[in-house]
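We give this protein:

***
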Amino acid sequence: MIALLLALGSSLAYGCADFLGGLGSRKAHVLRTVMIAAPASLAVELLLWPFLGASFSDRTIAWGAASGVASAAAFAMLYKTLAMGPMNVLSPVTALVSAVLPVGVGLVQGEHLGLAGLLGLPLALVAVVLVSAGHGAGAARPSRTALLLAFGAGAAIALQLVFLHQAPSDSGVGPLIVGRAVSSAVTLAAAGLMYRKLGSERPAYGMSATAGVLDSVANLLFLLASRNGDLAVVAVITALYPAGTVLLARTVLAERIHRGQLVGLGTAAIAVSLLALT
């Protein structure tokens, strides 16, 4: 139950972070947004160090650095994807892709689920599909480029989560600090190389920084959840984060929520209830 609640908190934080990051990337080049979001995330993790502890063994540094590279790619592709829109379609597509790989890794590593889990796990994946397929007549449809970016972002998020899970369980926030330091360095290096292509538009500083803080909180909650429960279950619960993005997009941007998406949200609630019994 603790792992489930932590995963739900991670899902909510990811959904809010993605909405703000995507919205901020509509005001300026995506790298300008990430240049603010990534260091903001690092600052949060450094502040948590004295309270949650951190160790930096070779395995922690290796897996943390790998998660950082994946995180930098995920940040850029995801925010660009959501900036292109529509958020209420592309965010769930990304989530579906990001759920499949960690679930597979968890099962291959020998995780076993009870009957409720065996029912809830595929039902949760179905819920993400229903939410992502929920655009009807008159609703905006994503371009091919946006869909490809959504798949790429999902794969990068999946790798980030898997790499964080592989870090030693007694490393505290060490892998998060290493990962965010690497992702910040990669982002700043890319921005330096592409400086002339970034344009003159100023980024939404507050929105971008808040997105980074929420992403850091989401990563922390996922790490704690995966240390207290099965990766297969935690990953698929975390992948339900589009619910928050979709509802915020509906409230703030007036994006349509199709009936299929509402069914998907209801299905997600049932799936979470079943997984809680695992």
Observations:
- Residues 100 and 137 are 29 Å apart (CA to CA).
